[in-house]
Amino acid sequence: MLQVPGDGSIIKEDNVTHSFCGLACVGWMYQKIKDSFFLILGTHTCAHFLQNALGMMIFAKPRFGIALLEEGDLSKHEPSLEEIIAEIKADHNPSVIFLLSSCTPEVMKVDFKGLADHLATPEVPVLFVPASGLVYNFTQAEDSVLHALVPFCPQAPAGEKSVVFLGSVNDATADDLRAEAEELGIKVGGFLPESRFEHMPAIGPDTVLAPIQPYLSRVAVKLERERGARTLHSLFPFGPDGTRAFWEDLAKMFGIEVDLSDREKAAWEKIRRQTDLLKGKQVFLTADTMMELPLARFLHSAGAEVMECSSAYINKKFHARELQALEGVRVVEQPNFHRQLEDIKRERPDMVVTSLMTANPFVGQGFIVKWSMEFMLMSIHGWSGVFTLANMFVSPFDRRSALPEFDRDVWLEGVMPSAEKVS
């Protein structure tokens, strides 16, 4: 059996991150900030990755693109992007352009900040966003985008207390969060990011930052230091337990006492079928999206046995409440994937939550698999997202049970005589 430290501490290993690079963030960020354009300075590898990962059709005319570096460009001092910027402005009329770095130009020591400043105009700012896969997990690049937006958030006057939600969610989820806060008597200052560049929220010393995504610790710290804002440290609003804690703790920061126990109970009742199925199931989460801690906490609360919850990076202060709720669960930072493979083959969990890159090999060994990337794409926040979240974990079991008289061990013997040899 996998061992859990007796003091509940995090096990830290030293593996590289098995996830998409930070460039993948454009897939949801350009859709959120509707008057933006994301320009990536990269290679053919970057272009191939984005074309395959995001799968955009030509007529969709997405608001992102790649300025390709050719071999001949490697000897130049700095790339010239003026013509590309002019074309972007003519075709898309953006209010802001984000210039994203990638691995090769970073190795070349391209001065991205200087390049962005040179290309910017008073009418259309060009903002540098470090997003190289050499440094950032793919969700962390959203943190970099929000970093770049901070100077364009107005200074909120002292005495105007309001909440600003940190994190990119679709408009329907944002409307739900706004309505819930206002119903509790909490003034909403906005979201970072908002749907349009000119509508970024005002932030000041009386602003409460409420992170709704678990990978935005750096921008929260930046706003605390530069604007004097305070950050809510609670569970993230995933599942009945997380949503209740999130709203009760946020209300407290506004001097409002609220008991949402009945609402939490009703939410658990709403997903009774799903939790009955999850109860006792052994689930193993490999590192990918940095959403693993709150997802594992929801599973743990739902009665599943979380064999291991691993994540690329863990911030003990930012994730303190999630870690507290996961006491007794094996939590690993920067896990060694080869060790995980051996543990999974030996312990044979009922489900593996893992990346797109590692999912098929696990399926090939007969495991039930859930793509961790799917949690990035679905509305799973707050009360309105409870059913979707629970169903995402249950749907792989439903699909497997629909297979007639499935026996994994018999199947394995037929397709791979020695599963032990597969690494």
Primary descriptors:
disordered C terminus, 4-stranded parallel beta sheet, Rossmann fold, oxidoreductase activity, acting on the CH-CH group of donors, iron-sulfur protein as acceptor, 423 residues, 3 domains, 6-stranded parallel beta sheet, alpha/beta, nucleotide-binding, globular
Question: What can you tell me about this protein's structure?
Answer:
By secondary structure, the chain is of the alpha/beta class. It has helices at 26-32, 44-54, 82-92, 103-107, 112-119, 140-149, 171-183, 217-227, 239-253, 261-270, 272-278, 292-301, 320-325, 337-347, 356-364, 374-377, 386-401, 408-415; strands spanning 11-12, 36-42, 64-68, 96-100, 126-129, 162-166, 188-192, 207-211, 230-231, 282-285, 305-311, 331-333, 351-354, 369-371. It folds into 3 domains: 22-136, 3-Layer(aba) Sandwich (Rossmann fold); 162-253, Nitrogenase molybdenum iron protein domain (Rossmann fold, 3-Layer(aba) Sandwich); 264-421, Nitrogenase molybdenum iron protein domain (Rossmann fold, 3-Layer(aba) Sandwich), CATH 3.40.50. The protein contains 18 helices and 14 strands. A 6-stranded parallel β-sheet has the order 1-12-11-10-13-14, sandwiched between helices. It has a 4-stranded parallel β-sheet with strand order 3-2-4-5, with helices on both faces. α9 crosses α12. It is globular, with a radius of gyration of 23 Å. Pathway: Porphyrin-containing compound metabolism; bacteriochlorophyll biosynthesis (light-independent).
